[in-house]
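The material for today's practical consists of a large collection of protein records. An example says more than a description, so a record of this kind follows:
***
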Amino acid sequence: MDRKEFLYLVGTGVAAITIGACLGGCKKTTTSPSAPTVNFSLNLADPANSALGTNGGYVYSQGVIVARTLSGAYIAVSQACTHQGVTVVYQGGSNGFYCSAHGSTFASSGAVTGGPASSNLKSYTTTLSGSTLHISG
């Protein structure tokens, strides 16, 4: 093997490895952020939770977004969008959740209503007892 042939083979090998690495970096990942398992209570009389005193208000706590719908019901879902983990917000007017990073939308139940997210937000059970709201799931 002469020098020219050797350099050609080395160059071809390096090019193949580089192209493979570049194409591997373009593959779509399907891993969604994991939603926490929770069991906690919020004191609705606490000023930190005052937003829940108003229909359409919401708070974040322990990886969960807790919202009060326009009809006065309490709902809770994981706060991380299942697309890339960006924190979602509650939109009282549409009674759903919205991710501002890429436009994913979710129903009040956490179900995907518009992508790019392809999996639902985890939904949690809410139970009101006096001024204490318990969230679990």
